[in-house]
């Protein structure tokens, strides 16, 4: 049955399609609404033992990856923990594992599937573990944006760069259009590469553009990571950046603005990090004299400007690990990680930057019942919740991912 989307008026004048759930009219947003199996109850006191037993039964056939934002109850079973860059590399480096169970979110599991061999199976314990930021850039919207850039005469001098937090088809778009993937650990190196590549491609004439036109980057989906990296690490000004809103006609920008910009930022954000406010930084400095404010680059530019240190989750962990006893921190990233850091370093004072920010709801979807359910099924020979990327998407997405993994320098380190 096909369902006609309900159109809702938008302030921009463009109707947004609202689909009715449960009618398979929008499989992406219905993904994982129900778990296809019998989940053990969260109250089952034997869950930890069951997970241990299933993991032991699978032995070397199983490798469990855990993103730093996962719950403690899940992270205790991870063979390796990391940020999205480290986990992508770890997945690619485990050819012996038949099952990669990814305790993280959907786009990470897709990347793992792309980077692993065809005989390896990547499992996401709960298919509803998506990412609201990744959902803010859909392939059709990105293709429309590329047409807008072409109409403005700048597509040929633009390198598309997608944050790891994007779906596989967006990564494939980048691979197919001379672009690349970045993570929060390597955004600067990747952007340096992209601007360099754009300049070379232009000079080689392969993209049919005028050598005098300035290379640009179309960066999606996270405007904040793009802006923070461009302005704070690469010496660009805010005026070098323009914001492309996929919900506005022509992105809400003029052809002249596109031609003048160096960074064309997609209007997307993380619904967790985007909520930390500059006022919270001011407030914590009063409440905790001597505090160092440490935030993730997905935070708003105004927050990052007021912080002492900014970096990926791996960076945040290392900054705390090497700090002296008695150090005081206010950390602006996902709460599971901040709580774990506070528990691991009782000799330091570690606070969560903003009282009103919640856990990442989708990261938290992976809980012990889902992990036990997935592991026990695998141990009994049933492959559940496998994440697969189709061959064409995989081919081009891998090009974009591999360009990132091949970069020298800080991208090669943990
Ligand atoms: P990193 O793992 O790259 O630090 O990203 C944070 C994040 O929001 C992942 O969803
Ligand atoms: Fe997505 Fe933000 Fe959650 Fe990461 S923390 S999975 S970017 S919503």
What does this structure look like?
- There is one protein chain.
- The protein has 414 residues and is of the alpha/beta class.
- The protein has three domains: 46-129 and 363-383, 3-Layer(aba) Sandwich (Rossmann fold); 134-270 and 399-412, no CATH class; 273-352, NadA-like (Rossmann fold).
- It has helices at residues 27-30, 47-58, 72-75, 84-92, 106-115, 139-151, 168-176, 187-203, 223-233, 255-260, 278-287, 301-306, 313-321, 335-344, 368-379, 391-405; strands at residues 6-8, 16-18, 62-67, 80-82, 99-103, 121-123, 158-163, 180-182, 216-220, 241-244, 263-266, 292-295, 309-310, 328-332, 349-352.
- The strands form four sheets. Strands 8-7-9-11-10 form a five-stranded parallel beta sheet, sandwiched between helices. It has a four-stranded parallel beta sheet with strand order 4-3-5-6, sandwiched between helices.
- Strand 5 (99-103), helix 5 (106-115) and strand 6 (121-123) form a beta-alpha-beta unit.
- Helix 2 runs parallel beside helix 15.
- It is globular, with a radius of gyration of 22 Å.
- Iron/sulfur cluster binds next to loops.
- 1,3-dihydroxyacetonephosphate (13P) is lined by residues 83-85, 131, 165, 183-184, 270, 298, 312-313.
Write the layout of secondary structure elements.
Elements: E1 6-8, E2 16-18, H1 27-30, H2 47-58, E3 62-67, H3 72-75, E4 80-82, H4 84-92, E5 99-103, H5 106-115, E6 121-123, H6 139-151, E7 158-163, H7 168-176, E8 180-182, H8 187-203, E9 216-220, H9 223-233, E10 241-244, H10 255-260, E11 263-266, H11 278-287, E12 292-295, H12 301-306, E13 309-310, H13 313-321, E14 328-332, H14 335-344, E15 349-352, H15 368-379, H16 391-405
Parallel strand pairs: 3-4, 3-5, 5-6, 7-8, 7-9, 9-11, 10-11, 12-13, 12-14, 14-15
Antiparallel strand pairs: 1-2
Helix pairs in contact: 2-15, 4-5, 5-16, 7-16
The protein binds 1,3-dihydroxyacetonephosphate and iron/sulfur cluster.
């Amino acid at each position: 049955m096909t369902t006609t989307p309900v159109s809702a008026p938008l302030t921009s004048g463009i109707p947004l399609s609202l689909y009715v759930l449960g009618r398979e009219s929008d499989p992406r947003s219905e993904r994982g609404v129900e778990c296809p199996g019998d989940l053990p109850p969260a109250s089952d006191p034997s869950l930890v033992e069951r997970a241990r037993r299933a993991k032991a039964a699978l032995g070397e056939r199983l490798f469990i990856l855990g993103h730093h934002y996962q719950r403690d109850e899940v992270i205790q079973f991870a063979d390796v923990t990391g940020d999205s860059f480290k986990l992508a590399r770890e997945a690619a480096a485990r050819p012996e594992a038949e099952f990669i169970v990814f305790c993280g979110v959907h786009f990470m599991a897709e990347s793992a599937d792309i980077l692993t061999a065809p005989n390896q199976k990547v499992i996401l314990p709960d298919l509803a573990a998506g990412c609201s930021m990744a959902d803010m850039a859909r392939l059709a919207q990105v293709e429309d944006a590329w047409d807008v850039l072409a109409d403005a005469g700048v597509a040929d001098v633009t390198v598309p760069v997608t944050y790891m937090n994007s779906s596989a088809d967006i990564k494939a778009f980048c691979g197919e259009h001379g672009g690349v993937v970045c993570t929060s650990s390597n955004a600067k190196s990747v952007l340096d590469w992209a601007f360099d590549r754009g300049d070379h491609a232009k000079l080689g004439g392969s993209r049919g553009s005028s050598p005098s036109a300035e290379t640009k980057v179309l960066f999606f989906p996270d405007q904040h990571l793009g802006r923070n990296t461009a302005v704070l690490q690469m010496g660009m000004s805010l005026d070098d950046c323009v914001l492309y809103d996929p919900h506005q006609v022509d992105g809400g920008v003029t052809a002249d603005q596109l031609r003048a910009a160096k960074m064309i930022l997609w209007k997307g954000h993380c619904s967790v990090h985007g909520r930390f406010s500059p006022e919270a930084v001011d407030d914590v400095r009063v409440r905790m004299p001597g505090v160092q404010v440490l935030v993730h680059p997905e935070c708003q530019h105004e927050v990052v400007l007021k912080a002492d240190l900014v970096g990926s989750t791996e960076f945040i962990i290392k900054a705390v690990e090497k700090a002296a006893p008695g150090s005081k921190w206010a950390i602006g990233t996902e709460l599971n990680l901040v709580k774990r850091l506070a528990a691991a370093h009782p000799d330091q004072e570690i606070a969560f930057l903003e009282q009103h920010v919640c856990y990442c709801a989708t990261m938290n979807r992976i809980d012990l019942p889902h992990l036990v359910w997935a592991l026990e099924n695998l141990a009994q020979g049933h492959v559940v919740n496998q994440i697969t990327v189709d061959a064409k998407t995989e081919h081009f997405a891998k090009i974009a991912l591999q360009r990132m993994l091949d970069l020298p320098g800080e991208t090669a380190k943990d």
